[in-house]
């Protein structure tokens, strides 16, 4: 279990300390306006930045106390963008950071509709394709291509994984993430800009505003019309879906 | 739409043929290793004194031939192989570290930094005449290369992508210019004897390779090569960007320290021993990357073997082209590498 214990940054980009934890099997959406500290929070959760206050612990051991290779088997990160210096074939890129076999790589590529691109050079991919390749790499790192059961208590962190995907790919990815969370007891934290994706697929939502986590809870609790309008400075209304009653965010014309 | 157009037969074959053939790393390295051995054999026999096996073994005893072979040719060949391997290997490692195919010890000013330090050492501190002798020259080369490496790295660290590339190339240009000018000043204030030593060394030549120099290379360069080889997996991970690489289990600051120190040690030694031999570190990894792909676990050892091969061949040419006179090998590699580099830039432009 990944826990934040009064963890935060005093120096910019700031993040006011708070405590919470990522539960196995849950899909958490981190939402908030540009510059609210979502990526900063993610780098804190991944251990890339050490908190100036408090601590971030995986299984009660601070992330900085983990051996890097052991930590890499337990948590993987998908960054916002991919900039490559050299033209890696997709298959080799996906295998970076794991000792995955060819069949494991094939399995992960299939999960993300990437089989046709396996031999392509990654520099020639479109934005959405590159994004899916990076997600595939992270899944491979956690050993999710294997048929046997994976290590328990794994964590997957994603920074805006849907930003370059078309609507069909968004749906397939969010369904895949939700499935992985449940089937492998994965704890997934995902920065999302699309509030409706968060409302539809996340079990829990954290709302960030200017370096403060101002709300946390189920989508219905957090995605409140008045709060969202104030935080995002947008004219919007929040309704509810007819099928499951989950919130539906609509922009005013 | 162009994607759905069926490709005509011959064109399709050409497109598909461009993808690298799956070859096992072992095969590639064995192939390159054999080529290096063959080049060593041929090079050992050619020169202003032809030393075929018949001369060495047939007219036995032939002390003069053996003396030439043992005292002059063997140390020189070993030095060429080691320096070539080091320059090409460090080129590949630098390119991986900067995630940029244009990084190279000469281009980034590493070699000229080492060169300047050696010039300072020769002129201001007495050079070979001092009690430290040749080892002082190694040390000066190492410190000069390390200084530039740290400086360039600090500059390249702040930016990313295209911007970082320009900063690096400009920093390299500035360091090269500065080192050139300082070298000029050193030449100006040097005594005649120092000037001779300086210019002999500065042209980039393996011609004064005696066992004393080769021994230094034998002691210093293999550990630096080994060190770089151990960084291969980390360099692969670093290609994902620092944030993702950290997530995949890489201790990036540690990797950078290792690559920087190993490169500075090796390149500093090379420059101290053989002067500035340009473009090897750019040329060899680039060609091999086109053939083998960008993975460092194969690219690094292959570059080392390829660099050794190229420098053995170039040095043999330098010895035989104008025999019994000699062309400085640094001149030769720059003549070869300069046009190639321009072609590379033109091609990059065309792709944008």
From TrEMBL, chain A:
Residues 2-235 form the ABC transporter domain. InterPro entries: AAA+_ATPase (IPR003593), ABC_transporter-like_ATP-bd (IPR003439), ABC_transporter-like_CS (IPR017871), P-loop_NTPase (IPR027417). CDD domains: ABC_Iron-Siderophores_B12_Hemin. GO terms for molecular function: ATP binding. It holds the Pfam family ABC_tran. Keywords: ATP-binding, Nucleotide-binding, Translocase, Transport. PROSITE patterns: ABC_TRANSPORTER_1, ABC_TRANSPORTER_2. The keyword Transport applies. Part of the ABC transporter complex HmuTUV involved in hemin import. Responsible for energy coupling to the transport system. This is ATP-binding cassette domain-containing protein. It comes from Billgrantia aerodenitrificans.
């Amino acid at each position: 279990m990944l826990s934040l214990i009064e963890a935060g940054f005093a120096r910019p980009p700031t993040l006011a300390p708070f405590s919470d934890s990522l539960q196995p099997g849950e899909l958490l959406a981190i939402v908030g306006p540009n510059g609210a500290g979502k990526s900063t929070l993610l780098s804190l959760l991944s251990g890339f930045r050490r908190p100036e206050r408090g601590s971030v612990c995986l299984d009660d051991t601070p992330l900085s106390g983990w051996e890097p290779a052991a930590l890499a088997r337990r948590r993987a990160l998908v960054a916002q963008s991919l900039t490559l210096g050299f033209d890696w074939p997709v298959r080799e890129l996906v295998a970076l950071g794991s000792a995955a076999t060819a069949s494991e790589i094939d399995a992960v590529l299939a999960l993300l509709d990437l089989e046709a691109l396996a031999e392509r050079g990654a520099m020639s991919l479109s934005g959405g394709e590159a994004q899916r390749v990076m997600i595939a790499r992270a899944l491979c790192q956690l050993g999710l291509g294997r048929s046997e059961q994976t290590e328990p208590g794994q964590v997957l962190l994603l920074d805006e994984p849907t930003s370059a995907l078309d609507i069909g790919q968004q749906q397939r990815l969010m369904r895949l993430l939700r499935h992985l969370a449940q089937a492998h007891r994965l704890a997934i934290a995902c920065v999302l800009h699309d509030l409706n994706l968060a409302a539809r697929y996340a079990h829990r939502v954290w709302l960030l505003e200017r370096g403060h986590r101002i709300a946390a809870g189920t989508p219905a609790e957090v995605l409140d019309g008045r709060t969202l309008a104030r935080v995002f400075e947008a004219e919007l209304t929040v309704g509810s879906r007819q099928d499951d009653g989950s919130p539906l965010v609509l922009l005013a014309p | 739409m162009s994607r759905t157009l069926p490709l005509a037969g011959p064109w399709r074959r050409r497109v598909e043929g461009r993808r690298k053939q799956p070859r096992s790393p072992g095969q590639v390295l064995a192939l390159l290793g054999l080529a290096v051995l063959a080049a060593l054999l041929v090079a050992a026999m050619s020169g202003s004194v032809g030393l075929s096996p018949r001369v060495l073994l047939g007219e036995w005893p032939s002390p003069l031939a053996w003396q030439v072979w043992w005292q002059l040719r063997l140390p020189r060949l070993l030095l060429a192989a080691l320096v070539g391997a080091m320059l090409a290997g460090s080129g590949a490692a630098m390119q991986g570290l900067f995630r940029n195919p244009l990084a190279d010890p000469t281009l980034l000013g590493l070699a000229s930094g080492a060169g300047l330090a050696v010039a300072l050492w020769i002129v201001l501190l007495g050079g070979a005449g001092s009690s430290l002798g040749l080892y002082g020259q190694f040390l000066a080369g190492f410190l000069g290369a390390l200084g530039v490496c740290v400086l360039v790295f600090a500059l390249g660290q702040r930016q990313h992508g295209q911007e970082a590339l320009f900063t690096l190339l400009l920093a390299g240009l500035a360091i090269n210019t500065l080192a050139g000018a300082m070298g000029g000043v050193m030449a100006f204030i040097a005594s005649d004897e120092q000037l001779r030593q300086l210019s002999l060394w500065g042209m980039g030549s393996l011609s004064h390779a005696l066992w004393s120099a080769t021994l230094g290379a034998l002691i210093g360069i293999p550990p630096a090569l080994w060190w770089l080889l151990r960084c291969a997996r980390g360099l692969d991970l670093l290609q994902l960007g620092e944030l993702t690489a950290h997530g995949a289990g890489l201790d990036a600051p540690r990797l950078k320290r290792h690559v920087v120190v190993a490169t500075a040690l090796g390149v500093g030694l090379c420059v101290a021993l053989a002067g500035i031999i340009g473009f090897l570190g750019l040329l060899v990894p680039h060609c091999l990357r086109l053939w083998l792909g960008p993975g460092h676990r194969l690219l690094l050892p292959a570059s080392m073997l390829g660099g050794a091969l190229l420098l053995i061949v170039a040095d043999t040419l330098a010895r035989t082209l104008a025999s019994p006179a000699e062309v400085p090998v640094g001149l030769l590699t720059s003549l070869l590498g300069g046009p190639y580099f321009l072609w590379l830039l033109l091609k990059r432009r065309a792709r944008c």
